Amino acid sequence: MTKSARSGKKTAKVTPATPAPAQAARPTSGALRHTPNTLPRPVMAGRDFLSNLDMTAAELRAVMDTAHSMKRGEWREVKPLAGLTLALIFEKASLRTRTTFDVGMYQLGGHAITLTNQEVGLGTRERVSDVARNLERWVDGVMARVYLQGNLQELAENASVPIINGLSDMLHPAQLLADYQTIEEEFGHNLNGLRVVYIGDGNNLANSHIHMGILTGTDVTIVTPVGYEPNAAVAMDAVKRGAKLTITNDLSAVEGADVLYTDVWISMGMEAEADIRRRAFKGYQVTPSMLDTIAKKGIFLHCLPAHYGEETVPEATEHRKSRVFDEAENRLHAQKALMYHLMGELQPRW
Predict the structure, then answer these.
(1) Is 172 annotated as a binding residue?
(2) Closest to 215 in 3D by CA, of 72, 58, 49
(3) What is the pLDDT of residues 77-97, one digit of tens each?
(4) Does domain 175-329 have CATH number 3.30.450.20?
(5) Which residue stretches does the UniProt record annotate as biased composition, category Basic residues (predicted)?
(6) Is 339 annotated as a binding residue?
(7) CATH number for the segment(s) 2-10+43-172+331-343
(8) Which of 79, 171, 212, 255 is 20 to 30 A from residue 203's alpha carbon, by CA?
(9) Among 24-28, 131-135, 154-158, which stretch is predicted with the lowest mean pLDDT?
(10) Is 174 part of any known ligand binding site?
C-alpha cells in the first residue's frame, strides 16, 4: 500500500503501465536552470518506494528525466527540499547508499541523519512499528537499508512519511534507478527490446532487474548456477505481466548482451556459505574475455563493492566497456530525483 503526504491515509498501490514511449533527449549544454516556478510536479508525492513496481512506467520516466536533468546541473539554483529531514537507517554497512542519500539531501537543501543498527535495533531493541511511529513525528522521510523486506513493509504500514528501500534481502530498487540512468546514457530512452543479461547470484539485484524489465520493456536474462535462481514469485509475476524474461544456467546466454551486469556471490550475512558459493559459481566470473563476447557497443555494470577474484576482476571494471564508476556516480543523481518526487510537495513542519 502507498500513502498520501503527511495524512497517514493509505491509497491503493498503483499498477505499472506499459513501457512509456521514447522521448527525445534533452539538451546537454547545461544552459537550462530550474527556478521554483519551473520545477516538474512530483509524481509520487508522499508515497513509499519499497519496490520499482511502486511506480508506473510513466512515473519512472519522470524520475529518470529528473535524474538526467540534475546530472546536467539544471537544479543548482533551487533547493526544493529545504527544511526537510531524511532519516537513514542502516542495518547493513554502505559506502554508496550512505554517501549519496546524505549528499543528495544536502544538495536539495535538506538534511539527513544517520542511524546505525545499534541505535535503532529494528525488531530487537524496539518494535519496528514503534520506530516508525517515533520517526514520523520528527522527520519527513526514512531510507532504510535492512536485512528483511518485511521490516520495510512494517515501517511503511506504520509511518505516515515516505519509506525508501535502500536495500533488503528481496530487492534493491534505488540501485536499479542508477543502473537504468546509466543504461539510458548509453542507449537512449527507448529501451524496449534492449538485451540486459544479469550473471551470478539470483539475489535482490536479480529480482529488481526483473521488475525493471516489466517497466521498461527490456529483454532480461538471468544466468545463474543451478539452485541460485531469482525469487520464483517475482519471476512468475513478470511472466504474467508479459515481461520478456529468460532464466537459465547456460553461460552462453551472455553472448551478444547489450548490458552485462553482475553482483557479489556472497552478500552480507551469507559469509557462512562462502566456500560452497565459490564452488557453485566457478565459471560465472566476468572477465575481459567474457566482455569480448557481448555486443560491440555493449556495456558492463556492477553495483559495487566488487569482490575481485570472485564475481569479477579489476581488468573488467577498468575495461573500455565498463561503466561501473559512471553507474556509481548516478546513485547520487537518481536518488536525488527519487527523493524529490517523493518529498517535493512536503512543507517544513517547524
Answers:
(1) yes
(2) 58
(3) 999 999 999 999 999 889 999
(4) no
(5) 1-12
(6) no
(7) 3.40.50.1370
(8) 255
(9) 24-28
(10) yes
